[in-house]
Amino acid sequence: GFAAWQAERAAEGTRVAYSEQAIGGYPFSLVLTIEEPEIARADGLAWSAPRLRGEAAVWSPLTIDFDAPGRHGISLPVSDGIVNLDLKAEQAIGRLRLTLRGEAESFGAELNGVELSEFGGPVTTAENLRVEIGSEASAAGKASAGLPIDICAEGIRLPEEGGAYPLGRDLARFQAALDVRGERLQGNWPEAAAAWSAQGGVVQVSEFRLLWGPLDLGGEGAMTLDPQRRPLGAFTARIVGYLETVDALAKGGLIELGEASILKLGGMALSKDQTEQGRPIVTIPLTAQDGSLHVGPLPVFPLQPIF
Predict the structure, then answer these.
(1) For residue range 138-160, what is the model confidence (pLDDT) as tens digits?
(2) Which of 62, 217, 278, 296 pairs as cysteine with 210 (C-beta 3.0–4.6 A)?
(3) Strand partners, 48
């Protein structure tokens, strides 16, 4: 079955290579171990790893548990070339569920001891990273009209070489529950993503949480891309630590002192609730439009094309 799948990918222009493979586990399980696997599409999208091991019980062959620790090479095509990423994980485990037709139904992975960098560049680390795609992401009863994706990263440390960070280098948590809606991506990336957006594709964010220094940001909204491939969307944000965050951004030079005063006054006017600890909660609209991130009506900083 693996050999047939490899031949089908080759017919599509995708190269699947490895140095060795071993099959075992019978009679209780089916185990496929691949040394130095590599997958490369014609558009430049590619992935490689030192080792990949998949195992399925004989009574449940469509549920595959996998293990792939070590260094992963990831190549992503962008508008002006290829971005090569280097991802290292002390532990990388997950589960893939297939339909009776052999198509992916859901995918989940958990990585510990993560290091991520553009090849040879500054390194971002995370203690833990979890990703769920497909039915597993909506297993908690969340209705989905598209492709559900759940992402959670904890213990993030930004690279020291990245410059000054007004809120600090350490992010305690980043979490998002997404629903990607629209036509299925067709063709090569990134043109396929641009076409998806032009045809009405949108990412619905039902839950968002960011803990970064004094900032505790949560909310929901929707996002797509504008014709220049910049973020375009609207969110309702609930912010704890609002005043401290504005002060930090002003001190770091990201916003002017006059703008900071306006933001603080407006934020306090929108502060109607409090946490159990008595900290004010500011509920405020965030919009990404015309290449700028707006807090209420005020543009705060520019947004660049994603690719």
Answers:
(1) 555 455 568 899 999 999 999 98
(2) 217
(3) 38, 73
